[in-house]
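Subject: for your reference before the review

Hello V.,

The reviewers asked for a structural picture of the protein, and I figured it would be easier to keep everything in one thread rather than splitting it across files. Below is the amino acid sequence we used in the manuscript, unchanged from the supplementary table.
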Amino acid sequence: MAKPIPPNRGARTLIIHAVLRILQITLAIIIAALYGIDLAHATKSHTRAIPSWVYAEFVAAVSAITSLIYVFVFVRYIVWILLDGLMVVLWVAQVGVFGSLFISNDTSSGDVDFTLSVLRMRVAVGLDLVMMVLWVLTAGLGVEGCVWGRKLVSRKDGGGCGMEVIVADGGDVETGEILCGEKETLATVVEEEDEGKGV
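And here is what came back from the structure prediction:
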């Protein structure tokens, strides 16, 4: 099976994408460290870890891995939107759980006693919120790429090979790639079609 054609990205979009993904990786590592301090203390003191802290570590790890993959691998916009949407949901849950514990002035919950520093956890909740916004932004970029991105035209050529033509935004050269490995310009394809119709 042929590899999918990566989206034809402009330099500005590519830079924005890379910066957002690197921020997501960096924040995921910092967030994992902030929650990990309490989990490490629980291990040392032989106390049972609270599931919400384990969940926070899981979400941070999945975020870092997903962002790292996105930096190096082009994925189709629909996959991008679905995965980023899932990450938004995970971060919303994390912000909700820890925000209700540490942002309110009522810190009488038993879960609050698990942490060594309420201030550190409030900082972690703030970073959780920033991370949630970053995932919303990258999901929005995926939607933008899907809706307003490149125009794809599909057809079958005479040899039975599928062809996708990427029409570059703002460019006057339209190129396509035959999935069998041949390259043609759209003008050549149109000329061949016109000749086949006897025009």
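For the response letter, the relevant points are probably these. Residues 1-6, 151-191 have pLDDT under 50 and may be disordered. The chain is about 65% helix and 10% strand.

Happy to draft the paragraph if you're swamped.

O.
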